[in-house]
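Problem 12. The chain below contains 426 residues. Write out its predicted structure in token notation.
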Amino acid sequence: MREGMTRPRLRAIDVRSTVDRGRPVLLLRDPLGISDKIVVVPQALGPLLALCDGSRTLPELHAGFLVRTGLQITLDLVQKVVDQLDGALLLESDGFGDAYAEALDDYRTAPFRQPTLAGTGYPAEPADLRQLLDDHLAAAAGNQSGVEAPSESGQVNGAQAGISGLVSPHIDFQRGGPVYAQVWGQAAEAVRAADLAVIFGTDHSVDTSLVTLTRQHYATPYGTLPTATPVVDAIAAAIGEEKAFAEEIHHRGEHSIELAAVWLHHVRGGQPCELVPILCGSFQHFIEAEDDPAVDPILSRALDALRRATMGRRVIVVAAADLAHVGPAFNDPLLVDYVRYLRLQAADEILIETITHSDADAFFRTIAAEGNRRNVCGLSAIYLALNLLNGKVTGELTGYDRCPADGQNTSFVSICGVVFRDQNEG
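Solution.
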């Protein structure tokens, strides 16, 4: 442990339980990717991690663990665990602070944001990616009226007038490909006609910002989508530079906006348009405090500034958002059996109806009423997209699916596609 780290404080990290050689263990990793190290600790030491809140010395951690669990461990073991955490930059420390600052500087000074999933989540070569997504579009066109199929040139043909926004999944293309194709194929003409895309993406990192901006450009295998910095600057001026960019590093590894940007770029035939990428943080504190996000000053100022800054532009609004996450894969103790599988769809149908009615308040209240027990991770992104569209649109469901999230088919992620059509269009 570095000198001065006398009261260890654990960062917001990713913790996953698994079995290693017959014993239950916890895998600890940095969700921001500042460190690529993984720390493995016995599951029985989980309470020790919870005690690392910055208020206790090592002897106090040792004593506190004994009081809470009754398990006898040595002070040397406590020291060893803390040293491992510190070496992997999982503690709040000077070492982590220096590494964080360096990573943020590297991100901001790079020519563009690298597509982090290219080559793993989808093909890195443009021709291979084009073939994959065209195959999904062709299959969707064969199964759904109004979905445009790719032409021989790779462009999507046909017309769907009046579409100004959409809800797109952010699950991987392997599982979500059909739903992606259904919604992006339906919205193809509007996507090609846009000169600006606003993408609200779920921020899966566990931190505090409601909206997180970046001035960095987003790259895809097709090239670079330039960020509309005057629009970003206008939002930052409205909510404050510090709040707007406090967690900008999250853009570096977050996949939600990236996956939507890939489909955007593909449907446009590789032609770029300006982008406003906005990561959306958790609304859980609104739910727990029974507060209304509609009166939150940060959200209100951000949306007002975004409306003013994009006035007169041909804007397509995208919520890159999944729905429910249920089952043991998501720390939900209840297995998804056949009955729960059917109930999942029934609950989603109620939620989707609030989306297609473009009712942001009803959407939030529906989730808040159940305490978000189904872990709807797209809550904030969809809510903000609906607010930006300002209730002047009507939604149309283009696709829905429940995707398995473990090898036993006991956990599922539900996803949907929705296009929003201006109410004065028919």
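Discussion. Residues 152-159 have pLDDT under 50 and may be disordered. Students who got a different answer should revisit the alignment rule from Section 12.3.
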